[in-house]
Design goal:
mainly alpha; single chain
Length: 91
C-alpha cells in the first residue's frame, strides 16, 4: 500500500484538469478508503460461502476489469512525453 498510493495519486492527478485535481483526488481517496472498509467483510463472506479460493478469483476478475479500463484511458501530453523513447546522447 505504501508504494501504491503515491503512484495512484500521480496517475489520477495527471488525468484531471488543473482546476479539478483537488476534487478528483478527494474522490479517489474516498473510493480507496471505502474499498479498504468494505473488502474484508465481503471477502470473508465469499470465503465462508464459496471456499478459500473465492476471494482471490473475485479479486482477479475485478483487477482484470480495472486493467481493461486503465488501458482505455487517453494518454495525456505529460504521460505521452514520459513514455516516448529518449534520444541517445552523443558521447
Amino acid at each position: 500500500m505504501g508504494l501504491l498510493n503515491p503512484s495512484i495519486s500521480s496517475l489520477v492527478s495527471r488525468q484531471a484538469q488543473n482546476d479539478e485535481q483537488g476534487g478528483i483526488l478527494g474522490v479517489s481517496q474516498s473510493a480507496s478508503s471505502l474499498a479498504r472498509a468494505l473488502a474484508p467483510p465481503i471477502a470473508g463472506m465469499l470465503f465462508d460461502l464459496s471456499g478459500h479460493n473465492a476471494p482471490y478469483f473475485v479479486g482477479a476478475v475485478i483487477m482484470a476489469g480495472v486493467l481493461v479500463l486503465a488501458l482505455r484511458l487517453p494518454r495525456t501530453g505529460r504521460a505521452r512525453a514520459a513514455a516516448a523513447p529518449s534520444e541517445p546522447r552523443p558521447s
